[in-house]
Write a structure and sequence with these properties.
Mean pLDDT: 94
Number of helices: 8
Shape: globular
Number of strands: 7
CATH class: Alpha Beta
CATH superfamily: NAD(P)-binding Rossmann-like Domain
CATH topology: Rossmann fold
């Protein structure tokens, strides 16, 4: 691979996605982030994309390919939560999370394949979660989508490995983001007590693992689930 690749990070305008985008940019890659609303952060190239809409995905990829060329590395990070206990979860709350986290991830992965197959190389990384195999009360929809990403990645790894394209899942645990910052102190303490390393993860620590999996050094890793959870999901 050339030193400067085209890296696309969906949902790269904040949190873990932004940390990942910044890490690739610092490594010298051409980084494009997608956002649903709000625009791109300073210093990053951006394109509007709604992963729940095939036309929006196709339009965004066409714009990227016209301006920068085909995508070499795809980080499928865009995701939402709509938490609630299963008995009270509405159909729409379940379906909205599936449409974004699972079907949306499939759409962007599928759309990136043509360019990668022509080059006979590519890296596709899905951002999963420790809850995929651990489970999480109140997150039936979210946990279901994140566990489904494992089957999706492993199937695609078998379908396109002969073309030099790898598919992996990076599964963070509790990460210091805007989402966890609003948790009550007693709840944070409860979560931290379950983590063998005794602390939350920083977004940069997730980004470090993602950039490694996208590197030439990780060329022989595919179909893997790489936890970045401080040991929280051990054995699952």
């Amino acid at each position: 691979m050339s030193s400067a690749r085209n890296v696309l990070v969906t949902g790269g305008n904040r949190g873990i996605g932004l940390a990942i985008a910044q890490a690739f940019k610092e490594a010298g890659d051409n980084v494009i982030i997608t956002y649903r609303t709000g625009g791109a952060p300073d210093g990053l190239l951006g394109v509007q994309m709604d992963v729940t809409d095939s036309a929006s995905v196709n339009s965004a990829f066409a714009e990227i390919e016209e301006k920068y060329g085909t995508v070499d590395v795809l980080i499928a990070n865009a995701g939402i939560t709509k938490d609630g206990l299963a008995m009270r979860m509405s159909d729409s709350d379940f379906q909205d999370v599936v449409d974004t986290n699972l079907t949306g991830t499939f759409r962007v992965a599928q759309r990136s394949l043509a360019g990668m197959m022509k080059k006979r190389s590519g890296r596709v990384i899905f951002i999963g979660s420790v809850v995929a195999l651990l489970g999480s009360a109140g997150q039936a929809n979210y946990a279901a989508t994140k566990s489904a990403l494992v089957g999706l990645a492993r199937t695609l790894a078998r379908e396109y490995g002969s073309r030099g394209i790898t598919f992996n899942v990076v599964a963070p645990g509790f990460v210091e983001t805007d989402m966890t910052a609003v948790l009550a102190d007693n709840l944070k303490e409860k979560y931290v007590s379950q983590i063998p390393l005794g602390r939350f993860c920083s977004p940069a620590e997730v980004a470090d693992v993602v950039t490694f999996i996208a590197s030439q050094e990780a060329a022989y890793i595919t179909g893997a689930v790489i936890p970045v959870d401080g040991g929280l999901g051990m054995g699952h």
